[in-house]
């Protein structure tokens, strides 16, 4: 439809002016007083309105001044807000076409902005009128609260001021967390991913579709591109009332609106379904079309982050037997859903066993950047820990903060006849909360090969079976109950004195995570970054 385009940045206001011939247009250009618009009926002359930012636009070697149009009303009643081109239509009169052809050869122009602000041509009888339709995806970051409903933070999408700027949106994109938590405190620890109509849901990202001016005609399409696997879903509300898009791999047209008869939804809400494989592997793509020709588009990149709260993080110990290590549990993220905070270890709080009590006020740097101690990394039972079990582990870990539990040196958990309940723990070593939080919920961590049972490994520290008496010095077993749970006896073996150098077969933070390879024992823990695919790694 378009034969030639002269790139003159202009701004237009209301219906005004008459039509000029080519000679009069040349005179106006030579006077350097006006910008000129063109329609099929002729040349539109408009009076100067106000200065605009225009740079390096020349005609015939003469710089065009930074002036603006008054506005023009199109035949279908749409008020022009901005215009950035002069259009030559193939059906225009030959006289006008010849003039613009000559003008074009002498024109140099720098287009300040690509993308938004493209040309639309409306057919209305014999008339062709130019105006600009801008479409934009306005997006808010996802919420950052991950828990079992203990804390209800405001959802960023509830505040207009929290929307991403165009600069941040284009440079970093939008970050959304996998919505694996339990905002309504479901007693069965059902993840929010498996629920609808969730009270206090605060993790979804708000999306608003904007277009200026309202085109009233044409079509809007919203596509979701997911590179390798589904990472997001789209709902009609932040509480997940109705699922609108479940999606698949590749380009998927999620929505289409015929603007003649339909109005786009005011807000859409994006849920993190599964973590991205890499940064910016998911996109929202908004297109505006007239007569099936694309007029404008906007693209928003998205990265979905999995924060693996409940993992164990380990480093060298500060005092006795430093190489045996020190373990803690990241249990809370206190940052916002952006790359800077997600990459900041100080935004993650850890459950940490100190000398006098277990506390929750230290941040991840205590494990990853503690002066003088090397970092062992971040670990979990990757194959066994689904979202539901992770919620259970997190709930159990939080229970430790309800009690005053001092540190002990030689045993993982005391009393030695412990009944397997967190509320009855009297003392513990730093790996104790990790071992208990997992194995109370049926997730194996560390276990010892039992020589008298064909080297079968026994993991569960809460198991109350009592069939053997274990010799923590000899490592041998004698048949018969001794009123001490067998598994706890094995977990509490420490190896001191002359056996100090042979502790690889005992439970220590270092053997619990596998930094030190267990001997005659086993750990189910392997490395897993705290944040995937980008963000804090927990020392890995």
Characteristic terms for this protein:
540 residues; alpha+beta; six-stranded antiparallel beta sheet; six-stranded mixed beta sheet; elongated; disordered N terminus
What does it look like?
The protein has three domains: 4-114, no CATH class; 135-306, no CATH class; 312-532, no CATH class. The model is unreliable at 1-93 and 99-131 (pLDDT under 50). Helix 6 (387-399) packs across helix 7 (432-439). A six-stranded antiparallel β-sheet has the order 11-12-14-19-16-17, with no helix packed on it. The chain has 540 residues and is of the alpha+beta class.
Concise description?
The chain is of the alpha+beta class and 540 residues long. The chain contains 9 helices and 35 strands.
Please give the domain count. Answer: 3
> Into which percentage range does the β-strand content fall?
25-35%
Using the alpha-carbon principal axes, give the shape. Answer: elongated
Gyration radius, in Å: 33 Å
First-to-last CA distance: 57 Å
- Judged by helices, strands and strand pairing, the structural class is alpha+beta
Largest sheet: 6 strands, antiparallel
Total number of helical segments? 9
Low-confidence stretches: 1-93, 99-131
Q: Mean pLDDT score, rounded?
A: 78
Q: Assign a percent range to the helix content.
A: 10-25%
- Biggest sheet: strand arrangement: 11-12-14-19-16-17
Number of strands: 35
């Amino acid at each position: 439809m378009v034969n030639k385009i002269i790139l003159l940045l202009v701004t237009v206001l209301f219906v005004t002016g008459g039509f000029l011939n080519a000679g009069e247009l040349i005179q106006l250009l030579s006077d350097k007083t006006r910008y000129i618009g063109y329609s099929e009926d002729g040349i539109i002359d408009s009076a100067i309105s106000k200065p605009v930012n225009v740079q390096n636009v020349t005609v015939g070697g003469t710089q065009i001044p930074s002036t603006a149009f008054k506005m023009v009303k199109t035949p279908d009643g749409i008020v022009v807000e901005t215009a950035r081109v002069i259009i030559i239509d193939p059906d225009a009169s030959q006289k006008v076409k010849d003039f613009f052809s000559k003008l074009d050869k002498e024109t140099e122009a720098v287009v300040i902005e690509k993308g938004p602000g493209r040309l639309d041509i409306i057919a209305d009888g014999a008339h062709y009128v130019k105006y600009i339709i801008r479409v934009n995806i306005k997006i808010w970051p996802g919420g950052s609260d991950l828990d079992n409903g203990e804390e209800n933070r405001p959802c960023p999408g509830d505040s207009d001021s929290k929307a991403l700027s165009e600069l941040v949106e284009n440079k970093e994109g939008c970050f959304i967390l996998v919505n694996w938590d339990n905002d309504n405190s479901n007693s069965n620890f059902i993840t929010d991913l498996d629920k609808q109509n969730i009270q206090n849901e605060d993790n979804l990202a708000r999306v608003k579709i904007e277009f200026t001016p309202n085109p009233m005609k044409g079509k809007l399409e919203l596509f979701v591109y997911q590179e390798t696997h589904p990472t997001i879903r789209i709902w009609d509300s932040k509480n997940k009332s109705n699922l609108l898009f479940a999606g698949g791999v590749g380009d998927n047209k999620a929505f289409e609106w015929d603007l003649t008869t339909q109005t786009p939804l005011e807000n859409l809400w994006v849920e993190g379904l599964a973590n991205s494989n890499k940064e910016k592997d998911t996109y929202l793509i908004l297109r505006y079309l007239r007569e099936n020709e694309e007029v404008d588009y906007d693209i928003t990149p998205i990265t979905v982050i999995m924060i693996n709260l409940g993992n164990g993080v380990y480093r060298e110990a500060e005092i006795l037997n430093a190489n045996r290590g020190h373990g803690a549990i990241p249990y809370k993220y206190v940052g916002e859903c952006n790359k800077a905070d997600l990459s900041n270890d100080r935004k993650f709080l850890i459950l940490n066993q100190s000398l006098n009590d277990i506390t929750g006020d230290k941040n991840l740097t205590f494990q990853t950047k503690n002066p003088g101690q090397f970092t062992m990394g971040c670990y979990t039972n990757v194959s066994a820990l689904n979202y539901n079990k992770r919620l259970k582990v997190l709930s159990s870990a939080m229970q430790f903060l309800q009690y005053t539990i001092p540190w002990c040196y030689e045993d993982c958990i005391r009393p030695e006849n412990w009944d397997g309940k967190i509320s009855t723990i009297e003392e513990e070593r730093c790996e104790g909360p990790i071992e208990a939080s997992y194995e109370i919920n049926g997730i194996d961590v560390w276990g010892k090969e039992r020589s008298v049972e064909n080297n079968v490994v026994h993991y569960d520290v809460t198991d109350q079976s009592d069939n053997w008496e274990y010799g923590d010095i000899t490592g041998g077993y004698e048949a018969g109950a001794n009123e001490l749970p067998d598994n706890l006896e094995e977990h509490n073996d420490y190896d001191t004195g002359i056996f100090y150098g042979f502790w690889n077969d005992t439970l220590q933070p270092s053997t619990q995570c596998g930094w030190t390879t267990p001997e005659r024992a086993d750990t189910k823990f392997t490395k897993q970054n705290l944040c995937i695919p980008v963000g804090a790694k927990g020392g890995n």
